[in-house]
Design goal:
The chain has about 650 residues and is of the alpha+beta class. The chain is built from 19 helices and 22 strands. It binds adenosine-5'-triphosphate and magnesium ion. The site of adenosine-5'-triphosphate (ATP) has 23 residues, from helix 12 and helix 14.
Length: about 650
């Protein structure tokens, strides 16, 4: 200190000058002390106050004259007050310093008794050979308060971060993790110490991982924010390598002069799953609604076309072969047949076509249709088959499966103009619940028939709609948009499901999952597949059961025109009554769907119970929704409406030629 060493300075020999200097110095010092912001207090070796500056007055609330000459203890709260005498005495005797020369935080007591924190630094000087002590006092209430509230707010923040449900992560400008809260530990499966001081990239899957450094660097360079301040959905990687979707919002702050980034992370797996489930449900409901609509339309059209077709054929019969109109009629018949094909696909989509499943070895079936596929694809397409050697049996309508595969092959052909490769593969697959779309089919064992091409592939917005009827990207006249609809409906009606893997540019694979047939049937597949003999056209006594009057009359006339003797009734009970009254009937020709709760299959069963030798030929265009999945015995013969007369006649002769 040396401030008050004024008594006998050896520096100045000139006494007058020294005195003058001393006065000047004293007045300077006084000015400093009087105006100091800090309290300045001087005590002697016994603790009596010798000086108490204005700052002290305002600090302690005492006027100087109340304090001067008093023991400084009056300014101290306990325990300082009690200790001070002891402390000074010890110092006088031993010279042991506790505080002198060192700043310390102590407490002061104001006149009003209130206590405040202060920083005290004490210096020692000699005056007249006796020590005096100068204390510099700074009120640190405010600083203490600030520290306290900082501690409190830090504590609150820490509590917030520690208990937050969301993950909170802090990284520096180069991506080093500085904070990783317990929610993050939960989310990522890492303990904080495994992550802190490492690069945040470790929490990211590709492509985020590779891009992150570049991103931070670019931000440092150009300051353009790509994610900061904006929430975003990204993917994160757990310690165990699994990836989950998260919502990340990033804020920026500065620490020192460096930016730091705070990320708030929310796991949105559950939300995503719920969204996906909802979408899937909506999709399933949409397909169901479209299915009912198309099924209804197709049903009505079928009967209309059956009537048109039948009448056109009858007209054609009556025209002399030389009549020019015959060609017109034939063209009309062709159009009706094309219309019938369309409605057939609509029925297939709506899962209301009448199926005739039987035990099928898909390898065998595919092999049989390869020539047809080759024909439709042309020379430039390389066709491959990859068969599961021991493929499981399936119970499926063979004709419809062929139809479906042909549709898929045609789609592939259109996606590979010029040339390409088509692969038809089969595989036995055990399917868990997660792999089944729409939730329509149960988990279990399936035979997967996949038709794959290396063609154009599909963009996601195309892929989302391909099963919808009339959805096509092809030019007018080139596609009706019913191919995949038919495949979808048929496979679903057969208790299977369809998936598609496709991306623009990489080709497409359509996978049909057909349920494995559990109890192997004894029917000999090859026997049913062998071409049927065409017996000579004998004529028979036929009972027609059909509820649609126009169609019933037409059928009767058509059969009569073929030489058969025909009776007609409109429903099941009437048919059974007719058989009871006159059992001289060779063939029951019945619609599968009949009004009055009794369908064609029921009628046939009861009729056969009555007349064991009675033969039955079914006809159908449609299954009512409540009959979906209803199927005929593999042995039964079915004519699909609308049918040409020659096809009906062929079916009749086939049925009649069967052994009783
Ligand atoms: N293998 C494939 N590669 C690329 N796109 C395909 C493939 N299969 C189907 N698509 C797309 O799906 C759409 C719908 O196919 P879908 O078979 O239902 O109808 P379509 O082929 O357009 O007409 P249709 O089959 O009735 O003649 C097609 O128009 C096409 O855009
Ligand atoms: Mg198609």
């Amino acid at each position: 200190m040396g401030l008050f060493r004024g008594g006998d300075s050896g520096w100045w020999n000139d006494k007058r000058t020294a005195e003058q200097q001393l006065r000047e110095s004293e007045s300077r010092l006084r000015a400093v002390v009087e105006t100091a912001v800090d309290g300045v207090i001087l005590i002697d070796a016994f603790g009596l106050v010798e000086m108490f500056n204005p700052a002290c007055e305002s600090l302690f609330g005492y006027r100087a004259d109340e304090v001067l000459g008093q023991n400084v203890k009056m300014l101290m709260p306990q325990p300082y007050e009690a200790e001070h005498d002891v402390y000074l005495r010890r110092y006088r005797h031993t010279g042991e310093r506790r505080i002198i020369g060192i700043g310390r935080e102590v407490a002061g007591r104001r006149k009003d008794g209130s206590v405040f924190p202060m920083e005290l630094s004490v210096g020692e000087a000699q005056r007249d050979g006796r020590p005096v002590f100068a204390g510099i006092i700074r009120d640190i209430s405010q600083r203490k308060q600030a520290e306290q509230s900082l501690r409190e707010s830090e504590g609150r923040l820490r509590a917030l971060v520690d208990t937050a449900v969301d993950g909170v992560i802090l990284i520096d400008a180069v991506g080093t993790v500085q904070m990783f809260n317990p929610a993050c530990e939960q989310l990522f499966g890492y303990r904080a110490e495994e992550v802190i001081n490492r690069n945040v990239r470790m929490l990211m899957p590709e492509p985020y991982q590779s891009e992150h450094d570049g991103y931070l660097k670019q931000y440092r360079d150009d300051g353009v924010r790509r994610i900061i301040g904006i929430g975003r959905e990204v993917a994160a990687r757990r310690k165990n390598g699994s990836v989950f979707p998260m919502e990340l919002s990033v804020g920026e702050a500065t620490r020192g002069d460096q930016p730091v980034f705070v990320g708030i992370i929310r796991d949105i797996s559950a939300r995503k799953e719920a969204e996906a489930a909802r979408e899937q449900l909506q999709q399933a409901q949409k397909m169901e609604a479209i299915g009912q609509l198309t099924g209804g339309i197709a049903h009505d059209f079928n009967n209309l076309m059956a009537v048109m077709l039948g009448n056109l054929e009858l007209v054609l019969d009556r025209l002399p072969p030389t009549d020019d109109s015959a060609d017109l009629i034939r063209t009309a018949i062709q159009s009706v047949e094309r219309g019938a094909q369309l409605t057939q696909r609509l029925l297939a989509f709506s899962r209301t076509q009448t199926l005739k499943p039987r035990q099928i070895d898909v390898n065998h079936l595919i092999t049989g249709m390869i020539p047809l596929v080759r024909l439709s694809l042309g020379e430039a397409v390389d066709i491959r088959m990859e068969f599961e050697a021991d493929v499981w049996m399936t119970m499926i309508d063979a004709a419809q499966l062929e139809n479906a595969l042909l549709n898929l092959a045609n789609n592939s052909r259109d996606a590979m103009p010029g040339k390409g490769r088509l692969t038809i593969s089969t595989a036995n697959i055990a399917v868990g619940p997660e792999a089944i779309p729409d939730g329509g089919a149960p988990p279990g064992e399936y035979v997967r028939v996949a038709v794959s091409d290396d063609g154009s592939g599909m963009a996601p917005d195309v892929l989302a709609h391909v099963f919808e009827p009339f959805f096509t990207t092809k030019e007018v006249g080139h596609g009706s948009g019913l191919g995949l609809s038919m495949v979808y409906g048929f496979v679903n009606q057969s208790h299977g499901f369809v998936t598609i893997d496709s991306a623009a540019g990489t080709g497409t694979s359509v996978n049909l999952y057909l349920p494995r047939m559990i109890a192997p049937a004894t029917t000999d597949q090859h026997a049913t597949e062998s071409p049927t003999r065409r017996p000579a056209g004998r004529t028979w006594a036929i009972l027609v059961v059909e509820d649609d009057a126009a169609l019933r009359h037409l059928t009767t006339r058509m059969l009569q025109s073929l030489g058969h003797s025909v009776r007609e009734v409109s429903d099941g009970p009437a048919a059974l009554r007719a058989l009871r009254q006159d059992p001289a009937v060779d063939l029951l020709y019945t619609d599968v769907i009949l009004p009055g709760g009794q369908n064609g299959v029921d009628v046939a069963r009861e009729a056969r119970a009555m007349l064991p030798n009675l033969k039955v030929l079914f006809t159908s265009g449609y299954l009512e929704p409540q009959d979906r999945g209803a199927t005929l015995d593999p042995d039964e013969e079915l004519i699909t409406k609308p049918a040409r007369r020659r096809d009906i006649e062929a079916a009749i002769q086939r049925v009649m030629s069967r052994p009783a």
